[in-house]
Write a structure and sequence with these properties.
Helices cover 39% and strands 21% of the residues. It has a six-stranded antiparallel sheet with strand order 15-16-18-17-19-22, sandwiched between helices. A five-stranded antiparallel sheet has the order 5-6-7-8-9, with helices on one face. The protein has a four-stranded antiparallel sheet with strand order 1-2-3-4. The two termini are 25 Å apart. Strand 5 (88-94) and strand 6 form a beta hairpin. It folds into four domains: 7-142, ibrinogen binding protein from staphylococcus aureus domain (ibrinogen binding protein from staphylococcus aureus fold), CATH 2.30.310.10; 174-257, no CATH class; 303-391; 434-553, no CATH class. Helix 4 (189-195) crosses helix 5 (201-213), helix 7 runs antiparallel to helix 9 (356-399) and helix 8 (312-323) packs antiparallel against helix 9. It is built from 13 helices and 22 strands. By secondary structure, it is an alpha+beta fold.
Length: 554
């Protein structure tokens, strides 16, 4: 996703906010994120006004999104509540065509005197900030305090506030813009962004495209473009939003009637994707660490098992000490003797403080300990192998999981006490499995996690339904709601789904087994997602993600 929240988009947002917010009263202030401030404003209705200086989501907007509020407000939110809560919004102004917006407030101080405050939003660069000013335009506090060595300007309590320097031309100044176009030609977006204030590369590319396709003076095209209003999101290989019609790009366009609707839609999708990526990254790291630990544990257990099986030495030493106890004197540290085969010589370490019988018993005890450890070690090795298989399966499922699937995977890990439960105001939604329909009209069920796989295979499957799964690899359980014999279309469609939603999706000629659902059974001692089956047939297929994507649309 890309964004173009430039000075021109800022102007459109400010125009909407002037109508909606001026005259309203700030009733509550929140800081939902480290870089966000949310004002709840009461006018004719309750409105939410969001300012964000987050590097990947820098914007100012009205919003109807349900933004989660933290239970404990941070320092800056508490400061704003003290000095701006209850204030009335008098004016909202954009500084030039920059991404700087000043919200003028009218409030009452602790002595009952009516005073003015200014809330300044600066939405650009690494020094992007939200700043509260007093009636003399001195800084009261800021979201990010900047000292003289941190920035060109000092943003600290008591410092005099000055706007960021920008000597570029205001694009809405028609005379100045016409003079710029008379000076020379522009061949790249960078040529325009260097000369005009608050113009994004996306806007510049649209102007250059129209300049190359329309027989009109540059100043005229520029004026037409600035006066145009079309709030839209365009999706192709990338997703962009704009407040003008984008003729230089092709793709699926979604048009909105306001900047609020546009930005809510764009950032809700983007935020969901960011949260999903973050959740999957967190779970992926957890699963990788767990698998690595289990594999290390398996190596250690395998070494211990080899040592436990090699217990004849301790038994033999104990027997030899009993046989040659008459040759052991008090204080001896070893016993040199010949073995029972009459050929092998031994040098057996002894405890000089113990008697021959005590030394013999110590070796017999070590022998029994190793012998008794063998069944335990075998059980631990089997359990560790099952866990590696289980976590590897979850890791493979996570690759294709959407938000609901990811939450279910996390919920499963919490349920089995592998992860701690996170406090949540809402219980996780139980998402149904994926359903598809092939060209013959056959309904196909696809599980995307262990719960869905177990539900499809062990609860919903009819005995005559046909079950598909990649051979010897983690993957989805796929069920065709039809009995044998299946058409070639249905077999290939189910095999594609089984291959694409598996760890073998990037391989070629993937073997996919299929059999009647009655032939699929749980494996005793393993989780319900692990099954065994018989009387299967096999089809080899090259996974085609485009085919599955088209099937999903249909």
């Amino acid at each position: 996703m890309q964004m173009s929240f430039d000075g021109i988009m800022t102007r459109r947002v400010v125009d909407e906010m002037k109508t909606a917010l001026v005259g309203g009263r700030i009733v509550k202030i929140f800081q939902p994120g480290r870089f966000d401030v949310l004002l709840q404003v009461r006018k004719a209705e309750s409105l939410s006004f969001l300012m964000s200086v987050a590097p990947s989501a820098m914007r100012i907007q009205l919003t109807r999104a349900d933004i989660e509020k933290p239970p404990h407000p941070p320092r800056f939110a508490m400061f704003l509540r003290k000095h701006a809560e209850g204030a009335r919004i008098e004016r909202i102004e954009q500084h030039g065509n920059d991404r700087v917006v000043v919200v003028r407030l009218n409030t009452i101080d602790r002595f009952g005197e009516r005073i003015t405050r200014s809330l300044v939003y600066e939405g650009f660069g690494k020094d992007a900030n939200i700043i509260l000013l007093d009636e003399k335009d001195a800084v009261m506090d800021a979201l990010k305090r900047l000292g003289p060595f941190d920035s060109k300007r000092t943003i600290q309590p008591g410092a005099r506030y000055v706007f960021p320097e920008d000597d570029r031309v205001d694009p809405f100044d028609q005379e100045a813009a016409a003079a710029v176009f008379e000076e020379g030609t522009f061949v790249s977006p960078r040529d325009l962004t260097r000369r005009f204030q608050g113009v994004s590369p996306l806007f510049a590319r649209e102007f250059l495209h129209r300049l190359s396709t329309e027989r009109t003076m540059p100043a005229t095209i520029w004026k037409t473009l600035l006066e145009e209003t079309r709030f839209n999101i365009l999706t192709n290989e990338k997703t962009v939003f704009s407040c003008v019609r984008l003729t230089h790009l092709e793709g699926e366009e979604k048009v909105f009637d306001s900047t609020q609707a546009l930005l809510d839609d764009f950032y809700s999708v983007r935020d969901r994707q960011d949260r999903l990526r973050s959740q999957k990254r967190e779970l992926g790291r957890f699963l990788a660490r767990r698998i690595e630990r289990l594999e290390n544990k398996l190596e250690s257990l395998a070494r211990e098992l080899v040592e436990a099986k090699d217990n004849e030495t301790e038994r033999r030493y104990g027997q030899l000490i009993l046989t040659y106890q008459h040759a052991i004197r008090a204080g001896d540290r070893s016993l040199e003797c010949r073995g029972f085969d009459g050929e092998t010589d031994y040098d057996i370490p002894l405890d000089p403080k113990a008697s021959p019988i005590e030394n013999s018993n110590a070796y017999f005890k070590a022998y029994k300990k190793k012998k008794n450890a063998i069944p335990h070690l075998r059980r631990e090795i089997a359990k560790a192998k099952n866990d590696v298989e289980y976590f590897t399966l979850l890791k493979a499922q996570l690759e294709d999981a959407d938000r609901e699937d990811t939450e279910e995977i996390r919920d499963e890990l919490v349920r089995h006490r592998h992860l701690k439960k996170k406090p949540s105001r809402k219980p996780p939604k139980r998402k149904p499995f994926h359903t598809y329909e092939d060209a013959d009209g056959v309904l196909i069920l696809v599980g995307m996690n262990n719960r869905q796989n177990a539900e499809i295979t062990h609860k919903l499957a009819h005995p005559d339904d046909v079950w598909f799964h990649v051979r010897s690899a983690p993957g989805s359980h796929v069920l065709a709601r039809a009995s044998q014999p299946l058409s070639e279309t249905t077999i290939r469609t189910c095999a594609q789904l089984a291959a694409v939603f598996s760890s073998q999706k990037d391989a070629s000629s993937v073997p996919v087994d299929y059999t009647e659902a009655r032939r699929v059974k749980k494996i005793p001692g393993k989780r319900a997602c692990f099954v065994r089956y018989d009387r299967q047939k096999t089809i080899h297929i090259d996974p085609d993600k485009a085919f599955v994507a088209e099937l999903k649309k249909r």
